[in-house]
Amino acid sequence: MKLSMTTALAGTLALVLGFAAPAFADIKIGATVSETGPASFLGDPEAKTLKMLVDALNAAGGINGEKIEFVIYDDGGDPNKARTFATRLVEDDEVVAIIGGTTTGTTMAIMPVAEDAEIPFISLAGAIEIIDPVRPYTFKTPHTDRMACAKIFEDMKKRGFTKIGMISGSDGFGASMRKQCLAIIGDYGIEVLADETYGPTDADMTPQLTNIKGKDGVQAVLNPGFGQGPAIVTRNYAQLAIGLPLYQSHGVASDSFIELAGAQAAEGVRLPGTALLVAGLLPESDPQYAVVKAYKEAYEKATGKPVSTFGGYAHDAFAILVDAIKRSGGSESSAIRDAIEATSGLVGTTGTVTMSATDHLGLDLSAFRMLEIQKGGWKIVE
């Protein structure tokens, strides 16, 4: 059976079509994401993506003729609400799996609920602590913050930078990435000469950036963070005419970051991102070309908005889950968990996923692209 969307998107969802196995009851999947609130620029495209993919799958006949019943809650980025909704999904809605955890904070609140109930949980957040140490029922789709640090430091080393300044958000993501960057920076022969932080509600980072500017020997600056903070940092950075290369994290890898910071202020900023941000630059021979092109076209047609990396995380989580349900031959949570862990060679918008009992992410550093903002758009610079 063919989907009523683009042919390429049909390829993504074809994981579930033409599958012959014993029939089972309609499959109930749950989600809690930050559709509103301070992380809405992450959670809104995630929610839209999941709803779009569920509708497309059901319109195509579901999995072996069985429809997906989708239950989604908006936690507004509040970890307490996320935990409450996760509990509701498990106890009241009786879902077989959960997608969500837009932020590290909400993910860490959902995780113990899913683990205690032995329900597969695929997080959409970045911190390495989500999957290290490995927990039986918890998986994730974004690259880890440690991987982002490594990608950035590789680029700095190529450019001959050995002394840098850091300005990090004190939120869960920023604090985690700062910790991971400091843990591995010595491996690249790079030294941190200035180490500043800012709060998630701060509206001006000029004092911290002035301190970095005044530190002799700094050759580049790294800003681990997500949300509006990095956009403010970028604007203040330009206002102070610091004039050094500025690196941001994968936590702001979206067109909305350029809009918030301003194209002129963001000019030259580098960050690690996914193929999705540069879909139009990928050659047809790229393994991710078809999946990225299909999702981008379908999402932008359905929403009238540009695609984002964060919606791509939800796309991949859904693809992984559907593929696992197909291979598990039923809707038992334990079997689905085992099938997720056995995911191999699944091409998504974020990379090609191959998981194992010791790796509940399934991506390596090659899945990242080093990108630079040029003239208000993204360019591949590696």
TrEMBL record:
GO BP term, example: amino acid transport
Alphabetically ordered keywords of this record: Amino-acid transport, Signal, Transport
SUPFAM superfamilies listed in its UniProt record: Periplasmic binding protein-like I
Signal peptide start and end residues: 1-25
InterPro entries reported in the protein's UniProt record: BCAA_transport, Leu-bd, Leu_Ile_Val-bd, Peripla_BP_I
Any Pfam family hit: Peripla_BP_6
Residue span, Leucine-binding protein domain: 27-362
Record-linked CDD domains: PBP1_ABC_RPA1789-like
PANTHER family to which the protein is assigned, alphabetical: BLR7848 PROTEIN, LEUCINE-SPECIFIC-BINDING PROTEIN
Family in the record: Belongs to the leucine-binding protein family.
The protein's name: ABC transporter substrate-binding protein
Organism from which the protein derives: Metarhizobium album
Upper classification of the organism: Bacteria, Pseudomonadati, Pseudomonadota, Alphaproteobacteria, Hyphomicrobiales
